[in-house]
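Full entry
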Amino acid sequence: MRIYTLVENPASDPIISWGKDNNSFVIWNLEEFIRRYIVHKFDCNRFSQFHADLRHYGFRRIKKGSGELEYGHEDFVRGQPERMKTLTLKAWRKSRAKFEVKEAAEEMRRLQI
């Protein structure tokens, strides 16, 4: 919800705003985005960590011209913040599935199967 709230705020439009199809966001000024928001709003130390978090939640990078980044997700829709709950559930399920596979592999190694 933090990214949704930030994108919804018209005051942040010169730095980050909705994409033209209203299911993505565009970072217009990466340097300013990092300086103002990465550490303070997203608890990240680096942009690469923020990018990894977006991927974890199923966001995809959309190719744009140089100097701007666009990320989209089918459940990240302008005017429909309730869809963000679905996005969170999908990310949790994917994370849980990876954990269970890793846990099973460790158990098999321990049992020497």
Summary: Strands lie at 16-18, 24-27, 60-62, 69-72. The chain has a mean pLDDT of 81. The radius of gyration is 17 Å.
